[in-house]
Amino acid sequence: xxxxxxxxxxxxxxxxxxxxxxxxxxxxxxxxxxxxxxxxxxxxxxxxxxxxxxxxxxxxxxxxxxxxxxxxxxxxxxxxxxxxxxxxxxxxxxxxxxxxxxxxxxxxxxxxxxxx
Amino acid sequence: xxxxxxxxxxxxxxxxxxxxxxxxxxxxxxxxxxxxxxxxxxxxxxxxxxxxxxxxxxxxxxxxxxxxxxxxxxxxxxxxxxxxxxxxxxxxxxxxxxxxxxxxxxxxxxxxxxxxxxxxxxxxxxxxxxxxxxxxxxxxxxxxxxxxxxxxxxxxxxxxxxxxxxxxxxxxxxxxxxxxxxxxxxxxxxxxxxxxxxxxxxxxxxxxxxxxxxxxxxxxxxxxxxxxxxxxxxxxxxxxxxxxxxxxxxxxxxxx
Lengths: 116, 256
Hints:
The complex is a heterodimer.
Chain A: H1 2-35, H2 49-78, H3 83-103
Helix pairs in contact in A: 2-3
Chain B: E1 13-20, E2 23-28, H1 29-49, H2 58-78, H3 86-102, H4 115-137, H5 155-167, H6 169-199, H7 203-208, H8 210-246
Antiparallel strand pairs in B: 1-2
C-alpha cells in the first residue's frame, strides 16, 4: 500500500517533469517558427513552362471575359448599347493585365505606382 | 488505329438513383471517383493517425506532413485569424490532390478535368470571401477595391478595374486547375497513342516507337508533379483570397 503510493507519486513527478520538458520544447519550437517562417513563394511553385503559360493566359482571359460579360449585361439592362460593352471590355483587358502582373509578383496588391 | 484523346473525359451513367421532375438523377463515374477521393482522404487521415503515436509510422508521417504543409501555408498567408478556415482549405487541398492523383491511374477518371467541378469549388471560395468579408468587416470591406495613395480623379477608373479583377478571380482560379488537368491528360494520351500507331507499321515502327515511349514515361512523372502542384496552387490561392476577406485594407504580408 505504502509502496504503491510512493510509486504513484514518483510517477506523477516523472510526468510533471516530462510535461515541463514538453512545454519547454514546444516553446522553443514556437520561437524557432516565429524567427524563420518558411518563405514559400506561391507564385514560383509551378515551374513548368506549360503551367506558367496556362496560369498567365487564364488570368488574362478571365479578365477580358468578365469585362465583356459585365459590359454586355450593362448594355442589356441599362440600354447604353454599345458603349458599356466597349468600355468594360477594354477595362477587363486592363484588369486581366493587372492580374497577370500581380500573379508574377511584378505589382503588389494596392501598389498602383510601379516601383522605380 | 486512331486514339480518341477526349474519350477519357466522358461521363457515364452507372445506375439511376431517383427522378426529380423529368430529370433522371444517375450515379455517374464522376460521382463515384469523387466519393473515392473523399474516402481515400479519410482513410489516410483517420486511418493512419488513429493510433496517435508520438513517433509516427510512415503513413502517419505522410498525414502529419500534409497537415503541417497546409497549416503553415495558411498561417503565413492569412495570419492566425485565418486558421479558422483551416478545415475548409485543407479539405479542398486533399480532395483536389486525391482527385488529381487518382486520375493518373490507368482506367481512372479525373474529376478535376471537368470545368463544372473546379468552378463549383472556386465559386465556393469566392462566395465564402464575399460573405465572410462583409460579415466580419461590414461595409468597410469595400475598401478592398479602393487602393490607398491614388489621386482622387483616378478612383472611379481604378475601382472598376479592381472590381473586374475581383470578379475574374473565380474564373482564373477554376480554369487554371481544369486546364492543367485537361491539357496534361490529352498530351499523355496523344503521345502514348503514337506508340500503338507506330507499332502497327512494323519493325521500323517499333524502333521509332522508343521515342514516344520515353516521352510518355517522362510525361507521366511530370503529370504526378502537376497533380500535386495544382492542388497546392489551388489551396494557396484560396488562402490569398481568404486573406482579402480577413484583412481588406492593409496587407501584413507583403510577399504577395
